[in-house]
Amino acid sequence: MNEGPMKEDPMNAVDPATSTYTLDIQGLRISLPGTARPVLDGIDLHVGAGETVALVGESGSGKTLTSRSALNLLPPGATVEGAVRVGGQDVLTMNADQLRALRTNTVAMIFQDPRAALNPLRRIGDFLIESVTLTRSMSRPDATARATELLQAVGLDASALHKYPGQVSGGMLQRVMIAAALMGDPALLLADEPTTALDVTTQAEVIALLTELRERFGTGLLFVTHDLDLAAAISDRVYVMYAGRIAESGPAQVLFAQPRHPYTAALLASTPRLEAPAGRLAAIDGQPPDLRQESHGCPFAARCPLAMEICERQAPEPLHAPDLPDHRAACHHTDRLEGSPVDV
Amino acid sequence: MSFLRFAVRRLAEMAATLLGASFVVFGAMYLAPGDPASFLLSGRSASPQALAAIKAQYHLDDPFFVRYLHWLGDIVRGDFGRSITYRTDVSRLLADRLPTTLLLVMMALVVVAVIGLALGWIAAVRGGGIDSTVLVGTTLAVGTPSFVAAVLLQGLFAVKLGWFPSSGAGDGFGDELWHLTLPAIALALYLIGMLARVTRSTMLEALDSEHVTVARSRGVPERQVIRRHVFRNSLGTVLTTGGLIVSTLLICTILVETAFSIGGVGQLLELSTTTKDFPTVQAISLIIVALFMAVNLIVDLLLPLVDPRIALGTRSTSV
Amino acid sequence: MTAVLTRRPGLSRIRAAGPPLYLICLAFVALVTTAALLASWLAPYDPNVVDLGNAMAAPSAEHWLGVDAAGRDTLSRLLLGARTSLLGPLGVVVFSTLAGVAVGMAAGWRGGWLDSVLSRSTELVFAFPGMLLAILIIAVYGEGLLAPVVALSIAYLPYVSRLTRSLVLAERKRPYVNAYQVQGHSALQICLRHILPNIAPVVLAQSTINFGYALMDLAGLSFLGLGIPALTPDWGRMVFDGQTAIQHGYPLSAIWPCVFIVLTVVAFNVVGERWADHVARRTP
After folding, report:
1. What transmembrane ranges does the database entry give (chain B) (predicted)?
2. Does C258 touch chain B if contact means CB atoms closer than 8 Å?
């Protein structure tokens, strides 16, 4: 479906210099002080140039942290292993200047709640141009011209430049946020649940806008969401996260039609669906594992209907499907789910 | 425009409070046991003429409310009555002494603003050992009354080391600054602690906000993040302490001017209180209250500039 | 310093110091209180006996902390001074807390005209720093501890009543109050038996901090020779007396009372803030 070498072991296979991925996360492990197990445990994830990738998981699964790692925006005191490469360069080892350049011109993030993301005391125009002007990558008039242009691209007019965030609606603010993210003409956009804080009609508009602009500007997009349907609708590939690990990854259509991980299957079963009227919603029993508890086996074992003794003992390695190397699942029982219906 | 209405309303509120304050200042005299005339003379030998003069000046033969209105009318015209101790117009006494006190207060205000903000800023941004040191220092500072600071500074820097004069206000502007340095620091110390703590805690709160993370994620240099998003956003809270700072400075001049024998309004208040020179006490009290309220008014009018949400009505004006 | 009560933003928000400092401060409060209570037995000398021949003597076996410019024993004066210096603030805190809670509770519960009168008068008293009000009243009444204590109580009252009012308003919204009302309990009963115990910790924490402020104000007044009678030993008065000795190159008799004033105020502040912080964390 997409470019990129399909090899068994991506850990050392890809030469960073020749990597064609816009974002390439390899073996990322992040531990925070005061926790018994890593918040992120061996994340492998990549986003190709111009590709849209969804990162799905419930709150606390580590999806936001994963996306923020692309900006090296980590909580204080975090210990990090692995590599996060953007355009072949490891973000985790960058110095302050390189990081600033990365954040201004290469990777941009759209945050969940635009109301909180904009300083209420500063004008919208000021917000749009501050990163490019303060890092001197653009002159003030140029930046203002580009801001006006982008505001028009997101369906707002230049009058918004002089307004304060308190004067416009949440949907409009999220459009401002998107325009701001495009200011530095980034190669990669990170969108962290960009529609969760908005009402339903505005959500659709923002998604449509995001998709359109992504195509127009040719940026890669890592879309973080807890909404499976949304992920299926907009993305080329999907990663499903559970308790700091990638449970399953693969092309969107395949993954949703034929989940190979019981967690994905359970998630799909718990999503209300219009076209399946009689279906009863199957909530997933239990809670995700506590960060304060150590875990040796599969983190989903406690809630998994297929769990056996081995699941408690040994964490499963991600294995690809026999017919499709791009479809991977970290489960000891992938075969038992093959072709099975969604209702677990 | 809503801002104009807001300004007019604040002005009216201030006038009402000032009226109330004048009533308290005037009425306090009548709490004294016995006849107001003898209280005003308070033990001084009262010749019939002097008694008559007092009665005429205070309209003591009129009903209470008429007396108050007379008194208020005089004050509005700038006539604060005659000092019983100094046998001269209170307004003249004040005119002589106010410049020294205002200079002292201004100097202290500058010290408070510069050092208080800087300490709060450094503690919030640097954290760690610097933060702990500032916290300990400011905890001590807010426990140190200005007269204690005055006596200790005087003992160390004026008497022991001889770096500064130990008393008086000096002659000429340069000399005056020289003489008022120690008193200004003594006056400022407590408020430096307070302002530093306020600045520190509001900046820490602002540092936690999402928009600061967003600014960092967009590559805005850290220095600018602190200036434009953290300090800028704590400015409103810091500004609301302005009225409090000025009124504390004014009232504490009574202690510091006494400690350093500076002939300002504060010392005059102390002298007139011990000699029961009531007209002078009344005048100074009213001036302190009025200045406090004027500063509060200025702060209230500046706040919409600092926080556009107030001017836009997207946030309540209560502070 | 009184004025600080007006709006003390941030003070409560500061993470209170860790337990060791808190415990040291608590111990210091206990120590000073005990010293004040037992002062007449502990003091080695009569604090007012003048011995000019021995004036400004350095600390010795007879006089542990030295003597002042008039030859009076500093330790004895400090001990007996603790009595006046703590009694005054105690009076201020007790008066202002009792009256402030009563007024604030009535205003919070009843609302209406009582509430608006309270908020108007609060505005007025905010304009008067406590010390200014005290000076005004002392100028009328003259010497004596009562006048400044009453004046400061009045000046501190609005802070307590405003706090109480907001706490009562929050408490009223809770379902249990309604339940008691339905069961026919009188307003007074509900206030005294249920609301008061719930809001007491917050008010007491604030009053503890107010103690430190009252101590500073009263010490300042006695430094000026206002309020406290001349012969009563008091820390503020001792600083004033010591100032003369400083000019003669003998700072010790001024330093001791200064140290005690600062440490006592700091100790009360730290303890009060710790309590306030504790209460705030318990009830989100």
Report:
1. 12-32, 102-122, 134-157, 177-196, 237-263, 283-306
2. yes
Q: Verify whether the Cβ–Cβ distance B243 to C4 is below 8 Å.
A: no
Please check the confidence at residue C141 and state whether its pLDDT lies above 50: yes
- Chain A from 114 to 143: CB within 8 A of any B CB: 116-122, 130-131, 134-135
- SS3 percent helix, strand, coil of chain B, rounded to 5, is 80, 0, 20
- Number of domains within chain B: 2
Helix (H) or strand (E) holding A31: strand A21-31
CB A250, CB A238: distance < 8 Å:
yes
Q: What residue numbers bound the domain in which B27 lies?
A: 3-88
Q: Distance (Å) from the C-alpha of residue B221 to the closest C-alpha of chain A?
A: 7
- Report the residue count for chain A: 344
Structure pTM?
0.84
pLDDT reported for residue C90? 94
CB contact under 8 A, B142 and C269: yes
Which domain CATH number covers C146?
A: 1.10.3720.10
Closest CA to A294 of A318, A312, A319: A312
Low-confidence ranges of chain A (pLDDT < 50): 1-18, 340-344
- Name every chain B residue with its beta carbon within 8 A of the beta carbon of C13: 201, 205
The residue of chain C with its CA nearest to that of B319 is C7
Predicted local distance difference test score (pLDDT) of residue A6: 41
Shortest Cα–Cα distance, C135 to chain B (Å)? 7
Amino acid A129: pLDDT: 92
CATH of the domain at B117: 1.10.3720.10
Cβ burial B178-191 (10 Å sphere, 16+ → b, else e): ebbbbbbbbbbbbb
CATH 3.40.50.300 for domain A19-239, yes or no, is yes
Q: Looking at residue A54, what is its pLDDT?
A: 92
Q: Is residue B209 part of a domain?
A: yes
Q: How far apart are CA A290 and CA B139, in angstroms?
A: 39
Task: Tell me, yes or no, whether C206 lies in a domain.
Answer: yes
Res A5: pLDDT: 41
State the DSSP code for C138.
H
Cα nearest neighbour of B167 on chain C: C247
ipTM higher than the 0.95 cut: no
Give the tens place of pLDDT for each residue, B97-146. 999 999 999 999 999 999 999 999 999 999 888 998 999 999 999 999 99
CB contact under 8 A, C124 and B20: yes
How many structural domains are present in chain C?
Answer: 1
